[in-house]
Amino acid sequence: MIQTARIAAVASLAILTAACTTRPEEYGVTVPPNAGVYKVGVPYQVGDTWYYPREQPDYDETGIASWYGPTFYGHTTANGERYDPNGLTAAHRTLPLPVNVRVTNLDNGKSLVVRVNDRGPFTKGRIIDLSERAASLLGYKANGTARVRVTFVSRADIPSGGVPPAVTPPEIASAVPAAPTDKVTSSSLVPVPGAAAAPGVQVASLAPPVATADAAVATQPTGIVTTVPVPVATRLYVQAGAFATYQNARRLQARLGAGLKISSVNQNGQTLYRVRLGPFDELGAADQALARLSGLGSNDARIVVDQ
């Protein structure tokens, strides 16, 4: 979340088509006038978990979204902007800042492009924090959380410096942390039916992309909410990792135990072996399972949404 406040407090399905089944809702949105710098960021630790920011142009993940509360109003974000609850912004743990991502609520099909300019959320089992307004537009402000799909769209504009640099200047950490001793490869899941592939992302079994009347709708935080096809029902899983070889998946399963199952999925012509708990119908049950795996030392475990 807000880097200066959140870290201290803690102690430390692809771009979906803009083809609407309902009339788009339009809201005037501008890029923050006090926008900061473009940065990737250096590795950092929150609690017992290390995070490694990096360029991720093929980012595509399902999981649980939350939203910022009043505590963070007016605070400076991780890239130097100021948090505005009425803006269309978000916090993410490892994406570069600022970038634009499309967030789709898998419960109601509402989809919106937001600007990621901050770090967070640091509550395990959450993949993105949206501003209050963005959460409201996507229809989950009252509930507090939603099952979402998040996909990378583009680098975001920086008014103070114009177009973001093609090559990110190197950042120097005060101390270079050790890499995780047990790195687990994660992967995006089977695409949501009716979705269109993001630029540079190869996704199997997808319908051809539907062209939009206004390209800016798909690439910038315009405030236009579109409604796209999503599964009738989704379920939650706690995924400890995904591997290209069954042997690696089996080793992780044997190390963690706790009822983990191995399932396979074909992604981009490659078979991946996923080590998971679930399915769960309720978020509370998934949170408990995630806490159990984290207690066994699986800091890379995450909640994912699948059919």
Average of pLDDT = 76
- CATH topology of the largest domain, anyone? Barwin-like endoglucanases
CATH architecture of the largest domain, by name, is Beta Barrel
- What is the straight-line distance between the termini? 29 Å
Main pleated-sheet profile: 6 strands, mixed, barrel
- What number of domains? 2
Please list the strands of the largest sheet in the order they lie side by side. Answer: 3-7-4-6-5-8
Helix/sheet category:
alpha+beta
What is the approximate shape? globular
Q: Helical element count?
A: 5
Q: Cα-atom Rg, whole angstroms? A: 19 Å
Question: What do you see in this structure?
Answer:
By secondary structure, the chain is of the alpha+beta class. It folds into two domains: 1-230, Beta Barrel (Barwin-like endoglucanases), CATH 2.40.40.10; 235-306, 2-Layer Sandwich (Alpha-Beta Plaits), CATH 3.30.70. It contains five helices and 13 strands. It has helices at 3-11, 132-137, 215-219, 246-256, 283-295, and strands at 44-46, 49-51, 60-67, 89-91, 99-105, 110-118, 128-130, 146-155, 226-227, 235-243, 261-267, 270-280, 302-306. Strands 3-7-4-6-5-8 form a six-stranded mixed β-barrel. The chain has a four-stranded antiparallel sheet with strand order 11-12-10-13. Strands 1-2 form a two-stranded antiparallel sheet. A hairpin with a 2-residue loop joins β11 (261-267) and β12. The protein starts with a helix and ends with a strand. Residues 3-30 and 170-217 have low confidence and may be disordered.
Keywords:
26% strand; Alpha-Beta Plaits; 2 domains; four-stranded antiparallel sheet; Barwin-like endoglucanases; single chain; 5 helices; 307 residues; alpha+beta; six-stranded mixed barrel; globular; disordered N terminus
